[in-house]
Amino acid sequence: MNRHERRSAAKKQKQQRLTPMQAFKLAIELHQQQRLEEAEKVYRSLLDLQPKHPDALHYYGVLLHQIGQSEQAIAYIKQALVIVPDYLDALNNLGNVLKETGDMQGAVDVYRQVLNLSPNHAGVHNNLGAVLRHLGAYQESISLLTKALALSPNNPDVLQNLGNSYRANGDYQQAIDAYRQSLAIKPQQKTIYQRLWRLLLATGQQEASQEVLKQWVAVDPNNHIAQHHFLAHTGYTPERASEDYIQETFDRFAASFDNVLDRLEYRAPSLVGQAVAKLFSESEKLACVLDAGCGTGLSGISLRAYTDKLIGVDLSQGMLNKAQQRKIYDELVKADLVKYLSSYTHLFNLIISADTLVYFGALEAFLQAASQALTTKGALVFTLEKHDAENGFQLNYHGRYAHTPRYVTDCLVNAGFELHVMETVILRKEMGEPVVGIVVTAICK
Ligand SMILES: C[S@@+](CC[C@H](N)C(=O)[O-])C[C@H]1O[C@@H](n2cnc3c(N)ncnc32)[C@H](O)[C@@H]1O
After folding, report:
1. Which residues line ligand 1 (CB under 6 A)?
2. Rounded to an integer, what distance in angstroms lies between the CA atom of residue 301 and that of residue 21?
3. pLDDT value of residue 48
4. Which helix (H) or strand (E) covers residue 150, if one does?
5. Helix, strand or coil for residue 87?
6. Residue of 253, 257, 287 lying closest to 269 (CA atoms)
7. pLDDT tens digits for 106-137?
8. How many alpha carbons fall within 13 Å on the CB side of residue 212?
9. Could you count the other beta carbons within 10 Å of the beta carbon of residue 434?
10. Structural domains in the chain?
11. Cα(91)–Cα(113) distance, rounded to whole angstroms?
């Protein structure tokens, strides 16, 4: 037996000599110190001796969820509840595990059980309120969270949750107030700043939104999203959004992108699809087509029919994973689209880019690279947001660029394109207002 084996055998012997009460205390201590492997061993040996120890079953279940074994976790916590049906903490934790594994309705049922047993449990009012928001029951969510706040005044987590539910219900000013109160109590809650800033902007409170942006950058100086928007507010216009900003924004957005954009009446993919249909027939079967900034693949759906080889390129792995699930691309590449295009010559018959060049101010580098990567007479179809001021492009407060038709036309001509069509369109809605853009079709000379 080597030294290590002797030490662990001694430890085991010592554990075996502990009374069940001492063993449970030790397991909880280790658990609280996040020494999960050691805690797991102690829970296990305790449960070997006392398989119906309700607390050990409950907390071992909680630990299993923490290490990703959520199904087993649920089974253990349920065993604890068979032994002690009114075990409030176990019920609450069961609700939490169900919620985190996506079983929202299951979580609601369990939280309601807790409230029947303990009608003034602030934590469960808070938890139930949050889950009901996920299920779209905003009014009930708000009233539960209001009660949670009455039971636990000035609780920053409850205030944050309440802000989220007000926001989901369209009660923007109440959401702003709740977020502000929450931050006043706990300024380090980094995630609130972005929501608060957006709401202030959307409700026309520009000065206040700038203040929040400053606070956000101060609290979270390495956050690329905060930095990007801060630049937009200061009036400084970088040539394009940083790769870090794009990745962070879209990796976070990927899961909800399709649903959110659907609610915003997003039309860029269908507008691009219509422009492509005017140029090509599906029977032509183009040799190679690129979806530049493919995102979750909404534009790829209509492109698939035109080609035997459809490639998507995007900077966000989260978005690419969603696109992969559609099974419509022959290749998906994680790269900056300008760098990607620069490495090909005369390859693509068609390049489309829907709602992606809005993250570029200067278009020269992209158009040069696209012109090189397209075959002669190859087509480029893209959308942009439109503005009519003096400058060729501007970075708007919401973080996307807008371009003048004049600038776009000049850049196209300089890069060797012939402008075929430029149509003014509504791309989508933003806070209920239409976003005006252009759909551009250009042919490589
Ligand atoms: C608003 S989404 C549009 C996605 C898709 N084209 C659509 O219409 O549904 C913009 C996408 O462009 C990608 N993107 C932005 N800048 C990029 C760049 N420089 N290189 C590659 N992808 C980029 C983002 O990651 C995001 O997936």
Report:
1. 246, 250, 268-269, 293-295, 298-299, 313-316, 319, 336-337, 354-356, 359
2. 61
3. 95
4. helix 138-151
5. coil
6. 257
7. 999 999 999 999 999 999 999 999 999 999 99
8. 25
9. 12
10. 1-119 (1.25.40.10), 249-444 (3.40.50.150)
11. 8
Per-residue model confidence (pLDDT) at position 397: 84
Q: How far is the CA of 87 from the centre of ligand 1 (A)?
A: 49
Q: Which two tokens stand for residue 368?
A: 């040069």
DSSP 238: -
- DSSP-based three-state secondary structure for 256: coil
Cβ 395 vs Cβ 228: under 8 Å: no
Interatomic CA distance for residues 254 and 323, integer angstroms: 10
- CA triple 84-85-90, angle to 5 deg: 80
Residues 6+ apart with CB under 8 A from 352: 272, 276, 289, 290, 291, 292, 299, 303, 380, 381, 382
- Report the residue among 224, 246, 398 best suited for mutation to probe ligand 1: largest number of ligand atoms under 8 A from its CB: 246
Ligand 1 centroid from CA 355, angstroms: 7
Match 């580098």 to its residue by tokens: 365
Each residue's pLDDT tens digit, 204-263: 998 999 999 999 999 999 999 999 999 888 878 899 999 999 999 999 999 999 998 998
Ligand 1: residue of 247, 250, 356, 363 to mutate (most ligand atoms within 8 A of CB) is: 356
**pLDDT, tens only, 178-188:** 999 999 999 99
